[in-house]
Amino acid sequence: MLRVALSRLGTAVPSLIGVVVVTFLLTRVLPGDTATYFAGPVASAEAIAQIRAQLGLDQTLPVQFGRYVADLARGDLGTSLGTGQPVLHEIATRLPASAELTLSGLLLAALAAVPLGILAALRQGSWVDHLCRVVTTAGVSLPVFFTGLLAVYVFYFLLGWAPSPVGRLDAFATAPPAVTNFLLIDSLLAGDTETFLAALSQIALPALTLALFALAPLARITRASMLAALDSEFIRTARASGLNRRTIVLTYAFRNAMLPVVTTLGMVFSFLLGANVLVEKVFAWPGIGSYAVEALIASDFAPVQGFVLTMAVLYIALNLAIDLLYGLIDPRAKEG
Amino acid sequence: MSAVPLLDVRDLTVEFATRRGTVRAVERVDLSIGKGETLAVVGESGSGKSVTSYAVMRILDRAGRIAAGTVTFSGMALRDLPEGEMRDLRGWEISMIFQNPRAALNPIRPVGRQIEDVLLQHGQAGRGNARARAVEVLESVRIARPAERYHAYPFELSGGMCQRVVIALALACRPQLLIADEPTTGLDVTTQKSVMELVTELTRARGMSTLLITHDLGLAAAYCDRVVVMEKGRVVETASASAIFRAPSHAYTRRLMRATPRPGAGLRDLLPEGAAPFPPAPIPGAPLLVVEGLVKEYPRAGGSLLGRLAGRAPAEAPFRAVDGIGFEIRRGESVGLVGESGCGKSTTSMMIMRLLDPTAGRIAFDGEDIGAIPARRFASSAARRRIQMVFQDPTDSLNPRHSAARAIADPIRRLGTLRGAALAARVEELASLVGLPAALLDRFPHQLSGGQKARVGIARAIALNPELVVLDEPTAALDVSVQAVVLNLLHELKLRLGMSYLFVSHDLNVVRLLCDRVLVMRAGAIVEEGPVERVLGNPAAAYTRELLAAIPHPPA
C-alpha cells in the first residue's frame, strides 16, 4: 500500500511542476497592470514605476520566475496587495471554511444520491426512478445562486427558521479553539454544543444548496453503474444460489458499482471546492473561492497563484486518496 | 426412470417483452427428470434451452415471464410459489452452474466468502463454523490447498478452478437437482473432462439429478442418460442418449449430428445434402513462411517502476511464453496450431502477424525476414498486405459503426489502390466469393447473424489476395451448423485462391477437417508435429494422446 502511494506521488511531481510554471505564466499574461491598479487613479508615472520595482515586475520573466520558485521553496506564497496579508496565512484560514462547506454539501449529496440511485436502478420506471430523474435534472439546471437565494428567501425571510445568511458563525457566538479549523468538529471537540448548533444552523442552507447541485451527477452515476452491476452474470449466480435481496443488492451489486461512484465523488469534490464561489458570495462565506475571485478582479497575482497551486495540490492528493480507495474496493486494482 | 419425476415441466411457454412486441422464446416445452437421472438439453443458440432452465429457477430477467404451463418440483408447483419460498429452494434444493465461470463469480469478493454467503443463507453453517465449512466445500471439489484458496479472488484463479468454485457454490447445500448451463464451454478439453467427471462423480455419489444444457451433442451423449433436443423454442426429440446417436428420428437432430465434426467425417460430410466433392488439393509448393528459434519473453509481474529506476534487477527470470519454436508453412498448405489456453499459440500467431515483437528468432516470409521489422512499422511494409487474419469473435472484431461493405473495403482503402466504383465492385465480388448476399452489404454488424458476420470477417481478410491467412479460432463462437458451412467455405477459398492457412484452434476435430499438417503446442514448445492423419490417428507424444482422450466420445 505504502509503495503504491509513493509511486503515485512520484508521478504527481511533473504535473506539480507544470502547474507552477503555468500559473506563473498565466498570472503574467492576465490583462491589467498590477502596479497601475494599486498606485491608484491619480498616481504619477514615477509612483507607478516605483511600485513596479517594489513588486519586482520590472525584472525579466525568468528572473521573476526564479524569485517565485525560491519563495515557494521557503513556503512563501507572497503577500496579497489587496489585504496586505501573507497569502499562505489567508489560504490557511479560508481553506477550512471552504472545505467544511464543500464536504458537508458533498456528504449530504452522497447520503441522498446513493440510496436514490440504487432505488431508481432497482425499480426502473417506478415513481422513485422518475423522482430521481426530476431531482437530477433540477440539480443540474438550477444555478446555485438561484437555489441559494431561494433557500434564503424561504427559510430565512419567510419562515425565519435559518439565521441570517452571513458567514460561518453569527456575531454573538464565540469561535471554538482552533484544532482542525472546521467549526463543526472543533466545537464538538471543545464540547460546546451551543456553538456547534450555531455553526450547524449557519452551514445548513449553503450546504443544502451545494448538495442539490452535487446530487445530480452522483445519483445518475449510481443508477447507471447499479444497472450495469445488476445485469452482470455474478448477480445471476447470486440469485440462483438463493441469496436474499439485501445481500444481492448491497454486498454483491453495490460494492461492484462503487468504483465509478467514488470516481465521480472525487471529481465533484474537486470542482466544487474551487467553483462554489457563487454559494460563498450568496451566504457571505469567508471561503477560498471568493478570495480568489476578488484577487483575480484586482489583478492581485500572488493570491491567484497561491489559490491555483493549492487547488492543484489538493487535486493531486484527492486523486491519490481515490486510487488508494480503489485498491480497498477492488482487489484487481492493486495489481496495476 | 421412477414413477414420480423429481422435476416435471409441462407445456412451458416463456415470453419476452421486446421493443418489437412479445417474443416467444420457449413454446410448450415438456420435460421431466427422475431422481438420480441425468438429462441433457441440446440445441443451438436461440433454441430456448437456457431460458427453459431460468424459467424453472424463476430467475428470468425483468422482460421475461412464464406465459403458460406448469413446473412441478418434488410435488410443489413452482410457478405459484411465493418468491420467499422460491428463494429458499434456490441453491438449497435446485442449484445452477454457468458458462463463463469467472464472470459468474463476484469479482471483488474472496471465493470462500461467496461460498459462506450461500451456506449462511440456507442455514447450513453458523457464524462460528462458516469458514471451516466453506473450506470443506472447496476441498470436496478437489481444490488443492483449500484453506489458502478461500482467500483467493476469481481473477487469481484459472478458468477450470473458477468452474470448480462455481460447482462448490452450487453443491454446498447438497441440492437434489443441479442445472448445468454450458458448464464447460470455453474451457480446454482436458479441463472440460475433469470438470465433467467431477460433476458426474459428485452428483452420482449424492444421488442427485442433473440437467445439462449444452450445444455439444458429444458431451450430452457421453455424460447423460437421456437427451432432449430443442430447436427454436420447441422440443423436437426426446430419447435415450444411445438411441439418439444410433437412430436420430427428427430431421433437425440428424442435421445437428451431421454438422458435428467427428473422426471419419470429411468437410463435405458436415453439410446437409451432398455437395460436389472438393477437387484434390494441390501438392504444397515452396515454403512460404519459415519460423526458426522463435522466442517471446515477458518480464514477470512485480518489480515496480521505482525499483527498476533504482537499478534493481527483477528477481526471477522472465516468463517464456514461446520457447524457441520452429516450423514452416508451404504455399497452398494449411497448418493447424493446437494447444490449450496459455500454451503460447496466440502469442505465436501474433508474432507472425507482426503485432508483437519476438524476443529472438527468425520469421521469414517468402525469403524476407519480417521478424526484423518492428511491429510498429510493419503496417507500412510491403509484406503486410500478403498476410491477413481472421479473428475468433466475429462480433467483437467488426467495428459496430461500420457497415459490412465498409468493413470489407477497409483493408483495400488502407493498403490497396482501388477506389470509387472499382472498390464497390470488388467488395461485391468478395461478398459473392464468401457467399454473403449483396443486399446485406449495407447492414451493420448488429443486424447480421453470427455466420454472416464470420463471412464479413473472412471477406475482409481475403480482400487483398493474401498469400497467408492466420485463422485464430474462426469458428469457436459459432453454432455447429454454421461452423460446418464456414469451414467448407474456408477450404473452398483456399483451393480457389491458392492461399496458405495457419489455423489456430483448440478443437482437434476441426483441425482434422481443415489442415494438412498439425503442430501441437504445450508450454511454449512444439511437442509433436506431422501430417494431421498421422498425429491425430496415431499420436506419438503423450500430451497429444491426452488431448485426444479428453474429447467427449459418445457411447458406441
Question: Could you explain how this protein is built, in words?
Answer:
The complex is a heterodimer of chains A (336) and B (556). Chain A has 336 residues and is an all-alpha fold. Chain A has helices spanning 2-29, 34-39, 45-55, 61-73, 87-122, 127-141, 144-158, 183-189, 193-230, 233-240, 245-275, 277-282, 288-297, 301-329. In chain A, helix 1 (2-29) runs antiparallel to helix 14 (301-329) and helix 8 crosses helix 9. The model of chain A has no long low-confidence stretch (mean pLDDT 85). Chain B has 556 residues and is of the alpha/beta class. Chain B folds into 2 domains: 35-50 and 82-270, P-loop containing nucleotide triphosphate hydrolases (Rossmann fold), CATH 3.40.50.300; 288-299 and 318-550, Rossmann fold, CATH 3.40.50.300. Chain B is built from 21 helices and 20 strands. Chain B is globular and about 70 Å long. The interface between A and B is medium-sized, with 28 and 34 residues.
Question: In a few lines, what is going on in this structure?
Answer:
The complex is a heterodimer of chains A (336) and B (556). Chain A is 75% helix and 0% strand. By secondary structure, chain A is mostly helical.
**How many structural domains of chain A?**
1
**Coarse structural class of chain A:** mainly alpha
Amino- and carboxy-terminal Cα gap of chain A = 12 Å
Low-confidence stretches of chain A: none
Subcellular location (chain A): Cell membrane
InterPro entries (chain A): BPD_transp_1_N, MetI-like, MetI-like_sf
Membrane topology (chain A): Multi-pass membrane protein
Organism (chain A): Muricoccus nepalensis
How would you describe this structure in keywords?
heterodimer; A: 336 residues; mainly alpha; MetI-like fold; 14 helices; 75% helix; globular; B: 556 residues; alpha/beta; Rossmann fold; six-stranded mixed beta sheet; 21 helices; 35% helix; 24% strand
Write the layout of secondary structure elements.
The complex is a heterodimer of chains A (336) and B (556).
Chain A: H1 2-29, H2 34-39, H3 45-55, H4 61-73, H5 87-122, H6 127-141, H7 144-158, H8 183-189, H9 193-230, H10 233-240, H11 245-275, H12 277-282, H13 288-297, H14 301-329
Chain B: E1 7-18, E2 21-33, E3 38-42, H1 49-57, E4 64-73, E5 76-77, H2 83-89, E6 94-97, H3 101-104, H4 111-121, H5 130-140, H6 146-149, H7 159-171, E7 177-181, H8 189-205, E8 209-214, H9 217-223, E9 226-231, E10 234-240, H10 241-246, H11 251-259, E11 287-298, H12 305-309, E12 319-330, E13 334-338, H13 345-352, E14 360-365, E15 368-369, H14 375-378, E16 387-390, H15 404-415, H16 420-433, H17 450-462, E17 468-472, H18 480-497, E18 500-505, H19 508-514, E19 517-522, E20 525-531, H20 532-537, H21 542-550
Parallel strand pairs in B: 3-8, 3-9, 6-7, 7-8, 13-18, 13-19, 16-17, 17-18
Antiparallel strand pairs in B: 1-2, 1-4, 4-5, 9-10, 11-12, 11-14, 14-15, 19-20
Helix pairs in contact in B: 4-5, 7-8, 8-21, 11-18, 15-16, 15-17, 16-17, 17-18
